Amino acid sequence: MHQLTIAGKAYRSRLLVGTGKYKDFAETRAAIDASGAEIVTVAVRRVNIGQDASQPNLLDAVPPSRFTILPNTAGCYNADDAVRTLRLARELLDGHPLCKLEVLGDPTSLFPNMPETLKAAETLVKDGFEVMVYCSDDPIQAKMLEEIGCVAVMPLASLIGSGMGILNPWNLRLIIDNAKVPIIVDAGVGTASDATIAMELGCDGVLMNTAIAHAKDPVLMASAMKKGIEAGREAFLAGRMPRKLYSADPSSPTSGLIGS
Hints:
By secondary structure, this protein is of the alpha/beta class. It has helices spanning 25-35, 58-61, 79-92, 114-126, 139-148, 169-177, 192-200, 210-213, 218-238, and strands spanning 4-6, 9-11, 15-18, 39-43, 68-72, 98-101, 130-135, 152-155, 184-186, 205-208. Helices cover 37% and strands 16% of the residues.
């Protein structure tokens, strides 16, 4: 199967994972290993990746030599804060340009603020960042982000941390069918079947955190998500049979049966 290519780099895994909400860095690393993920996203405002030399550094447990680190702007509510956060991350990661932009609208729903997201994306792309962007499942605004120059567009399946799964598959299909960059579902996945459905729809990948970290057994759930992504991708490539309501189509031919 073709690999996932983002900003010119190919990845075997189509599962991207976060690093928050685990009990400790050891569990974080165990879950990431079980997931098979190669791209790992880090909330720069919440996790130490070198900002505080006196505290444990996540990069000791999840080293950039082994994983592609994707700094994100979780906790930012306007474009200026998001741009400032990613410029800091680029310094801490030795000029690493790949980033995940998210500008939130409010602290309750964590729904994206799309006007500020578009504004921040434009600034970051002009500043040389390779922007993967969290957005609403609006096909028009998703296309606008692609045209600005984002390297991947990441519409939500449902609200961050909700575990509600894909609430609007039709909008996702509109986004996928009109895109020339990878479309990665970001937010709302609750279990492996949600990830499978996203891949069956034709998404290029799925990014998740809470669904793994808040499972009763995060490491086992990470393994389940890996398999769900792979199954969904294979089913998409295979092409499912058409749905035929009330259309009998026996698996075996009836001609030649005894007595016929």
